Amino acid sequence: MQGLLVIMMALIAGQVTGHPHGAPTTACNTMFPLHKHHPQTSSCPFETRPYQTEIFSNSSVRIALHNLGMLSGSSSGSSSSSENTTDSFKGYMIMAFEVPSENAVALGTFQVSSDSHTINCHGMQQNAATHSSKSHKNIVHLTWTPPEDFEGDVIFKTTYVASKKLFWMNQVSAPVRVRLAPAAVADEESDTDDDNTVLIQNDVFEGKLIEEVAYLESREYISLWAICSLFIVGFTCAVLAKLILAARAKKYSTLESI
Known about the structure:
Elements: H1 2-17, E1 46-50, E2 54-56, E3 61-67, H2 69-72, E4 91-98, E5 109-111, E6 116-119, E7 128-131, E8 139-145, E9 152-161, E10 167-172, E11 176-179, H3 182-257
Parallel strand pairs: 2-11
Antiparallel strand pairs: 1-3, 3-8, 4-7, 4-9, 5-8, 6-7, 9-10, 9-11
């Protein structure tokens, strides 16, 4: 019974301290491998290297996670089974962030090989990648695709795990400049032209409306002037008629008195 308990505790400890099938989603915020050890503060022997420094938003960039010795030629490239080896890594987790990356959400999507798989972090799809087995790795290739409407600088942060005791967190790659794809730029310019056309049409309509209002107002003024003129003429005629009648009446009264 005691032996069975020891075996069960060992299995539980292995599940908590090691993730042979990749990082869990609980590591999305910190990229910490949940090992019962502190991360290394020494120089990391592994590198995250994008193959391009500039891409368009409708394209992708290929990335290599590898032992630094593979570039310098100081490593034979063979896998080692030593627990404390730094010639190869067993696990990793990688995400892309916009620069500056403080409090940022992982961007884009990853395409991975058969020895890796993607993770959904921060409510996004396939925006992180991790290992699928604890085999020793000298190099891993991935492909990252930015959001179609994204423009800016991106860095890749990677946590490398050589063993339970040896791991390096948040290793930063060289930046990659993502430029808006020409088609997207053309669409934006087309939208701007359409907006300008609408503004011009609105201006023309407003101009015609002002002219129409001015024309109607002028007609109202003319009509009012005509009415006033008729009123003045009629009033004048009435006064003249009264004066003529009064003069005639006075004349007749004078003749009668004679």
